[in-house]
Amino acid sequence: MKKILLALALVFSTAFLFAQQTYPVNGSFDVRPGLYAFTNANIVVNANQTISNGVLLIKDKTIQSVGTGTTIPKGYIVIDLKGKYIYPSLIDAFTSYGIPETQRTAPTGGFFGRQSVFTSTKKGAYSWNESIRPETEVRTIFTIDTKKADDLRKAGFGSVNVINRDGIARGTSSAVTLNDGKENDVMLNDQSAANYSFNRGTSTNDYPSSLMGSIALLRQTYLDASWYKNQKEEYNISLEQFNKQQTLPQLFEADGWANILRVDKIAKEFGKSYIIKSTGDEYQRIDAVKATGATLIIPISFPKAFDVEDPIEARNLSLSQLKGWELAPTNPGVLEKAGVKFALTTFGLETPKDFWTNIQQAITNGLTEKQALQSVTEIPASILGVSDKVGSIEKGKLANFLITSDNIFKAGNIIFENWVQGKRFVVNRMDVTDLRGTYNLNIDGIGSTVLRITGTATAPMASIERLGADSVKTTATFARTGDWVTIGFNLKKNPVGDVRLSGYLTNGNPVAFSGDVVINSAPAGFWNGSFKEAAKEMPKRDEPAKPATANGALIYPFIAFGTEKAPTQEAVLLKNATVWTNEKEGILQNADVLLEGGKIKAVGKNLAAGSAKVIDATGKHITAGLIDEHSHIAGTGGINEGAQSVSAEVRIGDIINSEDINIYRQLAGGVTSSQILHGSANPIGGQSQLIKLRWGKLPEELKFAGADGFIKFALGENVKQSSSSNNQRFPSTRMGVEQTFVDEFTRAKEYEKALAVKGNNVRRDLELDAIVEILNNKRFITCHSYVQSEINMLIHVADSLGFKINTFTHILEGYKVADKMKAHGIAGSTFSDWWAYKMEVQDAIPYNGKIMHNVGITTAFNSDDAEMARHLNQEAGKSVLYGGVSEEEALKLVTLNPAKMLHIDNKVGSLKVGKDADVVIWSANPLSIYAKAEKTFVDGIAYWDIDRDAALQVAQKEEKARIIQKLATSKNAGASTQRAFGNRPPRLYACETEEDYWAEQNQLEMEGANNHE
Q: CA 405 to CA 392: how far, in whole Å?
């Protein structure tokens, strides 16, 4: 009877507690304070303080006292916890709890494949682009979701941050408690942060269609907001709100460590300090992540084990998938060890109850319990500006706390109750703690079975026995999280495959269960179980502790052919080779090349080695590293920003992907430098990026230091979108292409003139900034070109508007206009023998390169293709066949001449003392189809070594086998699995690659996939 009265007291007091202050009452107004005293408890005040045998007093929503020896005032309901634990309720800093699910845009065939939407269709004085929506406020759209709140409370959470995950500038989030009742009562901080991402979200606008477009749009928005503060020309709600939100915490959702670094660049450019919600792969580049100084919110959603029972499917798995599965649980511990401040989030978990399973994995893999607790209490409270209300058990704070059976991180711990704002929510009954015993189960599709749970109360073991004629007995896995139980087993036959039972404790005395049956990942009905008899105590025996399973080492980059240790720069003497200098000395026989300090120290015969490592190159050939003037490798998130006719504001340098396997493959072909170009979707494309192929380095470390800036222009079918049946974007004719150039340079001149006026308040325009750089010879044009008439047109436009064309790239009718190009000092980069692959190249001839070269044009052969770049040396060799170019001049087509085009011939392109040690050792004449690049040096570092590669292939095959065995063991131990699908193959970009990157990413998210490049 006393227990019944106590329960009634709890129900009535908490019900009256939350009467709304401003709401009218239809009836008698009766508000009673909830007065509770929790005694004999281990009170974990915070991660650094625990009070033994403590007393906690709460009144209404708040904590009145916490300590020992406390005198309990009259009128308090006393709850003796008998040594149980009290913890602060957990806080999740990144959720979409309580707001409608965002319906993201599905792909529609690239930006050419749907009706164009150039500007916002949103009514009102808002931004021109729908992905810039800072006016969105969660506090105005949030509603309590009782089902989701219950799931989160059962996992121990009492407060969450609610974010509208839609758009690039997303507006403000709100921190709320997980109480029920009215929205007015649960708001902790109605504007907890201003939120951002690179994802366009549900915006119907074409722009941005790429990652580089998103970065440019956000950068432009910061500039527009700054301009807006000092202008009187327009009213813009979006910019108004954007400016107001700059005083709030700034929270940026970024997928993958590479995007963390991109966010950091924006932060440094605009003086911001972002809290970054990431995807859990920071361990792959921990030093770079730490260097940002950012506070992180990281998921605890580790990849499921791959089912490798089928060896054919297991072969599909890449090394990065396998190592990612193994090392992802180390991420929190790695961050802690590095001193990075971070909070943990349930975001990405299939269900909140998985949080504790994964937290245990993280602790096993190096995360300390202290850090784990801080990352779900004090740190998120600080991030959200609610440390004065939640995050610890202290006087004056909200009564948000958990009652647990033991240390919250101990295996087998049970969360009994979760109190939120002084309201009691029962998670598990305190009267059921030990489930060991024998149970009769009825399972749809299997029949009657017996479940035996043995072991200890906190570390149970289990077995399943099917009764009857088809009897069989097998071990099972048994996991309990509060009242949730999961049982896994495999009977080998009837049915064949994995059986998983998930369900709830439906009764405490006697114990009973019920729930769902899943066989081979497919729903198969229901099950229930009832208690039969208590477990028989077995004599204890000492078991040797199982050694921790060692994890493999990190590799850089985190894909196949990555290495644990990067190759180092050293002094090297290459002796007794045929040396192609590309200088006046020509080709030297039986000569040496000395590399030291990343430079070419000497070229000649009988050089002294000194302390240098000596490589005998007898019978081999040595050349300068090959240079690809036109490439689209090492980019991510789209190579075209084709939603507008001019995209000069976007920068390939913002989206360099250092993990692209094509870097390694092209090193194996002797390539050391590449100009990564924007595609040809528009007349004026984005800014290029020259890189060195430094395999294993970070994106910024690939960039060719001190190189001039270039930009991609384009002519022809692609820019007028001839392949589109419903194109609405200007221009759609070649006449319109010409007018685009005229308009853009005219505007740029006017813009530059306006900027020169003292005291001006001209709106800074990233697009026009790039065009002004062209006019001032600070940025140089590489123009995609085919047809003679259009080439003549652009030369005329350049003459009339006062700018210069640096290079016509993959120019196939250069032989028709070689005289004009020569007169204007325009270089020509072409294909060796491509032709007839579309109408505008029908006049291409294989003698084009030879003719331009003979006229005196700086001529090069380029790839525009990831595969062709692997054998640029062979492309150069074709010029010997077509037109009889000398071998020495032929090699210059892919070395010295592209270096001249790119204004880097003072550093690379020939073997000259003082130039960068970008050098290739070939097994034979480099123009031969039989020649192999045996070693490729960049800055004196052998990033490619044919012998090292052979050994690496063997080692990585063994590494894959080791992890596959570990996966098999994991499955046998009861780990949930996923099918062993291989990674989606990386996209190979070319000039005409059409895609709406964000629509594709949103489709993947809707399908539950992840792709972090």
A: 19
CA 713 – CA 781 distance, rounded (Å) = 7
Cis peptide before 699 (omega within 30 of 0): no
- In whole angstroms, give the CA distance from residue 468 to residue 166: 56
What confidence category does residue 430 fall into, taking pLDDT thresholds of 50, 70 and 90? confident
What is the residue whose two structure tokens read 């940002």?
292
Partners of residue 187 on adjacent β-strands:
176
Q: Decide: helix, strand or coil at residue 224.
A: helix
Cross-strand bridge partners of residue 935: 921, 945
What whole-number distance in Å separates Cα of residue 372 and Cα of residue 944? 42
Residue 412: what pLDDT? 82
Count each helix (H run) and each strand (E run) in the chain, helices first. Answer: 26, 43
Tokens at 229, concatenated: 């503060």
- Which pTM was predicted? 0.90
One DSSP character per residue, 604-655 reads ESS---TTSEEEE-TT-EEEEPEEEEEE--SB-S-S---SSSB-TT-BGGGG
pLDDT digits (tens, 9 = 90+) for 33-71: 789 999 999 999 999 999 999 999 999 999 999 999 999
The model's pLDDT over 273-292, given as tens digits with 9 standing for 90+, comes to: 999 999 999 999 999 999 99
Distance CA 279, CA 87 (A): 27
Q: Could you identify the residue written with the tokens 């294909």?
A: 831
pLDDT value at position 537?
A: 61
For residue 782, give the nearest of 659, 910, 687, 881 by alpha carbon: 687
**How would you class 641 by CB atoms within 10 Å of its CB: exposed for 0-12, middle for 13-18, buried for 19 or more?**
buried
The amino acid sitting at 553 is A
The two beta strands, 49-59 and 35-46, are antiparallel
Q: 284: which DSSP letter? A: G
- Ramachandran quadrant class, 563 (left: phi over 0; alpha: psi -120 to 50; beta: rest): beta
Per-residue DSSP letter, 796: H
C-alpha torsion angle, residues 635, 641, 645, 648 (rounded to 10):
-60
Residue 757 CA to its chain's centroid (Å): 43
Q: How many angstroms separate the Cα of 284 from the Cα of each of 16, 290, 341, 942, 950?
A: 52, 12, 17, 23, 24
What is the C-alpha to C-alpha distance for residues 782 and 375, in angstroms, rounded to an integer? 50
175 three-class SS: strand
Length of the chain in terms of residues written: 1013
Residue 282 token pair: 């920071």
Residue showing tokens 């789209």:
638
Token pair listed for 478: 């048994």
Question: Residue 632: its pLDDT value, please?
Answer: 97
One-letter identity of residue 928: S
Is a pLDDT exceeding 60 seen at residue 934? yes
Q: Residue 616: which residues within 8 A CB-CB, separation 6 or more?
A: 575, 576
* DSSP string over 855-906: HT--EEE--SSTTGGGGHHHHHHHHHHTT---HHHHHHTTTHHHHHHTT-TT
CB atoms within 10 A of CB 551: 15
Q: Which residue has the higher pLDDT, 53 or 717?
A: 53
pLDDT at residue 18, as a whole number: 47
Helices (H), 493-535: none
Higher pLDDT, residue 330 or 458: 330
- In 10 A of CB 461, how many CB atoms? 14
**Distance of alpha carbon 186 from alpha carbon 936, whole angstroms:** 62
Contacts of 566 (CB under 8 A, 6+ apart): 556, 696, 697, 941
φ and ψ at residue 855, rounded to 5 degrees: -70, -20
Average pLDDT of every residue of the chain: 92
Q: Which residues of 293-321 are buried (b: 16+ CB within 10 A; e: fewer)?
A: ebbbbbbbbbbebbbbeeeeebeebebbb
Residue range 307-328, pLDDT digits in tens:
999 999 999 999 999 999 999 9
Phi, psi angles (nearest 5°) of residue 844: -65, 145
d(CA 796, CA 741): 11
